[in-house]
Amino acid sequence: MTEELELENQLCFALYAASRAMTAMYRPKLDALGITYPQYLVLLALWQRDGRTVGDLCAALELDSGTLSPLLKRLEAAGFVERRRSAADERRVEITLTDRGRELRTAACAIPAQSAEITGLELGELAELRETLHRLTAALTTHTPSKENR
Description:
Elements: H1 11-33, H2 37-48, E1 52-53, H3 54-61, H4 65-77, E2 81-85, E3 93-97, H5 99-108, H6 111-119, H7 123-143
Antiparallel strand pairs: 1-3, 2-3
């Protein structure tokens, strides 16, 4: 086998394994809050800016509405968010935090620092890694054909 095809030399595998490990590390913290990792990401976006439309959340989270809608329904059923049609444009659905959703932010505040500590990386290393991953994502996104062009 050629060295280029060895599993441990594959960037895609390293990213996949790191993503799974990161999600597993978050699981017990989020289980204690009664939310999943994808729901946590939605809540992070809403804690950053409440009152977003579904389209805005899709863009922020880089998800399509078919993936996001079930997450929002479960968050609404759990009492963390409300979904309402926009008064200005009924085609748009606005997502707002409930009091319970805002209160959850306080309980989640320690998660980023705890998670950073578990990685064993310095804050500067984590910031550099995050920036590198953002650049990688942007580069891959611009070179990945859209569904319409496949």
